[in-house]
């Protein structure tokens, strides 16, 4: 029996999708329901239908899952940030573990005993060290400042976010007060007119240093000294105030040019015992504490004894390879974004690391070039974006024949596809450990050890 739009059904939620929606079956049809919890019995209104699945929304909770908890954020139902604020953290971790297990079994065809339990966050809230708050026109001439609604660019006005450190709320408050006094016009995405685009914040957690950055469609803002004063008086740890110019009509938040109007150009954080300088433009892991655990696992899997050559592909600003450099012979990092490569070189220099070189190239092309140059890495590290690795890269890595491949992935589905491809080239998956880098969201990171089993 087919489902129709606006139909009311009763549904038992049995699990979650990769996006974090609850899912249940109705006459063989999968019905996806946002903010549902596994174990709920619901009255659901069907909103959209297709042949094998449908989307619905909760009309009434008939019987509540034991995993349900009271939602502690008033924006949860509208904001696009969190998907798991209505269930206990244990249940969220279980859902993420299940997602990885399903992908490994279904796509790679492996038995799941190689899967370790997910590394949970000690505190699933207040972990983000970066906030990019869009600024829009609000009612009565006041601004709205907050987050985009789910799948949209409508701004939900809220200063506070439970994923962020409290100091960001203080900074947002100071920014609002400045805007109230200055009445600077805000940018309108639809027309490309107006001035203030985003309020951007970063915290170096280990040192407590805070950077505040106003992104403008122009070169500056009126009344910069008052903005600095308000921020200085309200934001503990403030070390840097920056204006970023973005004159493009684009979704990209930051423009290429930064001007420091008070304090330092960068703030400094510590990760795995190394110092990293962070500017508004540098890539840096948003959950420092969990990233550190992820990198430590990657280092354990790399099994270094001191003389190894490490090839760190998709290296970003070099964090993974650099954190292993002192236990290796040499590190070769490869990254496609020039600015990140520059940062990686600077990070190496500032930490006194002399056995690392960085190439600004496509990972597959670089691997091919390095193979032809006769490099024989003992360990290859892969940390690709969501779409995973090109098959040609997996081919080349297979031919380079490293003893170990350590794969860090933010997408269990493409990871599983790639592990299967590696298996066909003589690499056995020994261990998979999910790490909860982004609590309350649907994302899950994994770190994998593969070992070479064939000549
Ligand atoms: N390993 C880093 C960054 C991982 S994010 C860290 O842990 O911080 C993935 C990185 O891959 C990004 O920096 C992105 O710019 C880079 N990238 C994307 N496509 C690439 C390609 N084809 N070749 C090389 N690097 C690429």
From TrEMBL:
The active site is at residue 410. InterPro entries: MeTrfase_TrmA_AS, NA-bd_OB-fold, SAM-dependent_MTases_sf, TRAM_dom, U5_MeTrfase_fam. GO terms for biological process: rRNA base methylation. Its EC number is 2.1.1.189. Keywords: Methyltransferase, S-adenosyl-L-methionine, Transferase. It comes from the Bacteria. It holds the Pfam family tRNA_U5-meth_tr. Transmembrane segments: none annotated. Residues 2-60 form the TRAM domain. S-adenosyl-L-methionine binds at residues 285, 314, 335, 383. PROSITE patterns: SAM_MT_RNA_M5U (PS51687), TRAM (PS50926), TRMA_1 (PS01230). One of its GO terms (molecular function) is rRNA (uridine-C5-)-methyltransferase activity. Signal peptide: none annotated. Belongs to the class I-like SAM-binding methyltransferase superfamily. RNA M5U methyltransferase family. This is 23S rRNA (Uracil-C(5))-methyltransferase RlmCD. It comes from Caproicibacter fermentans. The gene is rlmCD.
